[in-house]
Design goal:
Largest sheet of chain A: 8 strands, mixed
Strand order of the largest sheet of chain B: 2-3
Distance between the termini of chain B: 44 Å
Strand order of the largest sheet of chain A: 6-7-10-1-11-12-13-14
Number of strands of chain A: 16
Structural class of chain A: alpha+beta
Strand content of chain B: 5-15%
Shape of chain B: flat
Radius of gyration of chain B: 22 Å
Order of helices and strands of chain B: HHEHEE
Distance between the termini of chain A: 80 Å
Number of domains of chain A: 3
Helix content of chain A: 25-40%
Largest interface: A-B, 50 and 37 residues
Oligomer: heterodimer
Number of helices of chain B: 3
Number of helices of chain A: 16
Radius of gyration of chain A: 30 Å
Structural class of chain B: alpha+beta
Helix content of chain B: 25-40%
Chain lengths: ~475, ~100
């Protein structure tokens, strides 16, 4: 077989699809009026007989959950199904007291959509959404160490979720991570979820398979319950490497559910019961179908807040780097401030502030920026504009304002950061520098027409004035004196 | 006509977390096949153009506003229905790990 060697050297192409559970920010649960916020609550205190699955109880749908699901659908550029239904998904596990989860299968509320992702190299890519369905969350199990029992807390049981199911359109760990980040932006900007990743408000399941180019998709594994973008990226990376290695050794991939070990940065096989996926779905007769008319969908659309796309379009005019835009979007208050500045104070002010904020975000210098206002940013920008502050000094002032409050001008004065633009004062420093014998060579070079050396002399003046001399003014004075 | 085998019964019992002895399974095969045969009659009806019936109440959009309801029930009362409890939680046989 002559093509055998070539075939085995052919690269394996990964294919990735992602399911994302998003916790909806309703006050009450999906089918009961129990409190949906259990973050600080004692176990089994935000519950009702419905959450406990007691006999004789009837679920009643939370209208707000439907509104939020439709809103999510619109943010995903998806079609909204005018008829949708709930079905029962059956499995036995102690975190599910009814013995079934109320979910949607054949007729979910949100139909196909598309999400555009932006990769590090500047390229864009579309990831198709297969559908998104509404379902209830299960309870929480804890396994006290050493004990022969587990404990069940049903506070989370019945919390409304939507599960966003992508098509297998991603082909690298970067694409998977960026897709997860984009979903996070879309869902938080749309106001669908609180987006608290630490508390599991968004959880990702990644389906990964590898196959040689041109061949049918390989056997996939599903790594469940990833709650950070980094974990999504790493888990996909790990699965691609693990599966490729197995196939290269001539072994087979087992279709299975896997977990993620954060400490070891590895996926591991979760023994799932045989036939565990035989969920025996059937329509839930306790819940009448949802019929949504144009008026309902239009009303939700009219309430839809500005999505990341609106900000991206506006920021395009500022000529910002993709990474700067991304870091601003990651903190919505920042993105809002820049948009504000752009509209009120113009492009230049907004661009300047965008760079300050994005470097502050990426350095994570500031944790609590609640005291930061657009007025502060505008004032700082104006000071830079008239050469009172260097851009670097402005950032220093910014950090101080946010951490300790106060006006930018007062802080600049107090920290002795104001640039000297008084011509006489700068001129006297210039005189000193030009008279210094150490600079004699540079001075004669400039006189001889070597213009580049002026920069060196400006640097000396800056140094002598502790960075406060206005560089443009300094250069002008040096020119006047030497040329 | 489809029929149910003893393996089907055992699989269903497993999925439903039910203990079924061999003799019970054999009896269930017979009973389930009778039920299936009865339901099979529906296949004789021409349902062309008839929409599936998911429910017979004719209700739609039965929903409530997103407001807290006080169920006036203590945790202790709810936990009374569980076979065992500890520290305000339901105690079950250890699962996983």
């Amino acid at each position: 077989m002559s093509d055998q060697p070539t075939a085995s050297r052919q690269k394996y192409i990964p294919t990735i699809g992602i399911e994302c559970h998003v916790q909806l920010k309703t006050k009450t649960k999906l089918f009961s009026g129990a409190n949906n916020d259990a973050r600080e609550a004692e176990p089994n205190t935000t519950v009702s007989p419905i959450c406990f699955g007691l006999p004789g109880t009837l679920p009643v749908l939370n209208k707000e959950a439907v509104r939020l699901a439709v809103r999510a659908g619109l943010a995903l550029g998806a079609s909204i199904n005018r008829v949708s239904r709930f079905e029962r998904k059956h499995y036995f596990y102690p975190d599910l007291p009814k013995g079934y989860q109320i979910s949607q299968l054949a007729e979910p509320t949100v139909g196909p959509g598309v999400v555009t992702i932006r990769l590090g190299d500047g390229s864009e890519k579309s990831v198709r959404i297969h559908h998104a369905h509404i379902e209830e969350d299960a309870g929480k199990l804890t396994h006290p160490s050493g004990a022969d029992y587990s404990l069940v807390d049903l506070n989370r049981a019945g919390t409304p979720l939507i599960e966003i199911v992508s098509e297998p359109d991603m082909h690298s760990s970067e694409e998977a991570k960026v897709y997860a980040q984009e979903l996070y932006l879309l869902m938080t900007y749309a106001g669908v979820t609180h987006g608290d990743l630490y508390h599991g408000n968004m959880r990702f399941d990644v389906n990964v398979s590898v196959a040689k180019e041109g061949e049918p998709l390989g056997t996939r594994t599903e790594t469940k319950n990833l709650n950070s973008f980094k974990a999504v990226e790493r888990a996909v990376e790990f699965e691609i490497a693990r599966q490729t290695k197995l196939l290269e050794k001539g072994e087979k991939i087992v279709q299975e559910t896997r977990g993620w070990n954060e400490d070891r940065q590895q996926t591991f096989s979760q023994r799932s019961k045989e036939n565990a996926h035989d969920y025996r779905y059937f329509p839930d007769a306790d819940l009448p179908p949802i019929y949504l008319d144009d008026a309902f969908v239009d009303e939700v659309r009219s309430e839809l807040p500005a999505l990341p796309g609106v900000y991206r379009a506006a920021f395009k005019e500022l000529g910002l780097d993709g990474s700067v835009v991304q870091s601003l979007l990651a903190r919505r208050t920042y993105a809002d401030m820049i948009l504000d500045l752009q509209q009120v104070h113009g492009k230049q002010t907004a661009t300047r502030a965008a760079h300050w904020l994005s470097s502050v975000v990426s350095d994570e210098v500031l944790v609590d920026t609640s005291s930061l206002t657009t007025e502060t940013l505008a004032e700082l920008s104006a000071m830079v504009e008239v050469n009172e502050l260097s851009s670097t000094a402005a950032k220093e002032v910014l950090v101080e304002v946010v951490e300790h409050g106060g006006s930018p001008r007062a802080i600049a004065e107090q920290k002795n950061l104001l640039q000297v633009s008084d011509e006489g004062a700068v001129a006297s420093v210039v005189d000193e520098v030009l008279a210094n014998p150490a600079n004699a060579k540079a001075v004669s070079d400039v006189k001889a027409g070597n213009d580049k050396v002026i920069g060196f002399l400006v640097g000396q003046v800056m140094k002598k004035s502790a960075g406060k001399a206005n560089p443009a003014l300094t250069q002008k004075i040096i020119r006047e004196k030497l040329i | 006509m489809s029929s149910i085998s003893i393996d089907d019964v055992k699989k269903l019992a497993g999925l439903s977390a039910l203990m079924v002895t061999d003799s019970e399974a054999a009896a269930l095969v017979e009973q389930l096949n009778e039920i299936l045969g009865f339901v099979e009659q529906l296949n004789d009806v021409d349902t062309t153009g008839v929409e599936p019936t998911y429910q017979v109440t004719g209700l739609e959009n039965v929903w409530r506003e997103d407001e807290l309801i006080d169920y006036n029930l203590s945790r202790e009362a709810l936990l009374k229905n569980a076979p065992d409890s500890q520290d305000g939680q339901i105690k079950v046989k250890r699962v996983l790990t």
